[in-house]
Design a protein that fits this description.
The protein is an alpha/beta fold. The protein contains five helices and nine strands; from the N terminus they run H-E-H-E-E-E-H-H-E-E-E-H-E-E. The longest helix is centred in the N-terminal third of the chain and has 10 residues.
């Protein structure tokens, strides 16, 4: 189970007991917001892309979209989301539960600055009914990430 993989990963930080299990699905931004009792923008969605050599995860606020021009400028390739069937084998988590915790070796994780406007956010925790509430600083601390990036549109005021 992917949530167990996430729990094991987060245990190194003493954060494994912070995983929230919902009675209902949190597989989409809208469902996760309803389950967590928050606005959709505060759901930290983790998007899976093909990279030049290895897959890339971009964790971003729930109200954003990837800006294709920014993506191409940053990575040097067009943005291509991984096909559904390839997500779990390449990332280590299935769609609906993809998160930046305990991913497969070689997967690069980037954190989008769109999340920094919230005191906390809710990334998934490995399965379609799990999440964890973290501050932007905690998200940075508890993920093996490449840093903060500006790759999204639709959230700036």
């Amino acid at each position: 189970m992917s949530v167990e993989r996430t729990r094991k990963y987060l245990s190194q930080f003493g954060m494994d007991d912070k995983i929230i299990t919902f009675k209902e699905s949190s597989a989409t931004v809208e469902l996760a917001a309803k389950a967590a009792g928050t606005e959709p923008a505060r759901i930290a969605k983790t998007l899976s892309f093909a990279g030049k050599e290895n897959p890339v995860l971009i964790v971003t606020a729930g109200d954003t979209k990837i800006d294709n021009a920014k993506f191409k400028h940053f990575f040097g390739i067009k943005a291509h989301m991984l096909p559904f069937a390839e997500v779990e084998p390449l990332i280590g988590h299935a769609p609906g539960g993809v998160c930046p915790f305990g991913v497969n070796e070689g997967v690069k994780v980037y954190l989008d600055i769109s999340m920094k406007r919230f005191p906390t956010m809710f990334p998934a925790a490995g399965e379609e009914n799990n999440a964890i509430e973290l501050t932007p600083e905690e998200l940075e601390k508890y993920t093996d990430n490449e840093g903060w990036v500006d790759l999204c549109k639709g959230w700036q005021e």
